[in-house]
Amino acid sequence: MHGRALRLALAWLLLCVAAAAADTHPARSGRSKKLWLLSASALIAANAFDIASSRGLYETNPVLRDPTGRFSVSRGIAVKSAASGGFLLFQFLWLRKSPQHRLDGAFAAINFTAAGVVGATAMNNTTVRRPAP
User: Fold this and answer.
1) CA-to-CA distance for 92 and 64, rounded, in angstroms?
2) How far apart (Å, rounded) are the C-alpha atoms in residues 66 and 70?
3) What is the reported pTM?
4) In a domain, 105, yes or no
5) In degrees, to the nearest 5, what angle opens at C-alpha 33 toward C-alphas 30 and 39?
6) What is the span of the domain harbouring residue 57?
């Protein structure tokens, strides 16, 4: 179940990135668009790594834990997919609606920063000792 849900969430997020890549507006071509797509991919990868590294650990966030207090993979996928997907969808729609503002670079910086924070959290999760089953 968890593997299927994770694949579904990643497919949905990658679909968002693919839709953004298909955007052919003339004001949004070139380096800044590629940078934004790369940052969106980094954010998706960091969230997937965080979900994978949190599996089986005790969770402090009540939204993401199951009744035993451990990380709930299905809740984690749902929350992280909704948050990241919604954030990237907002960016995509904003960039598509107002290409003259050229916020690709600013959004890319935000995405790379968020990916760094989530990635650092995931790296920390790999050093935490797993509880006994």
Assistant:
1) 27
2) 6
3) 0.76
4) yes
5) 135
6) 2-127
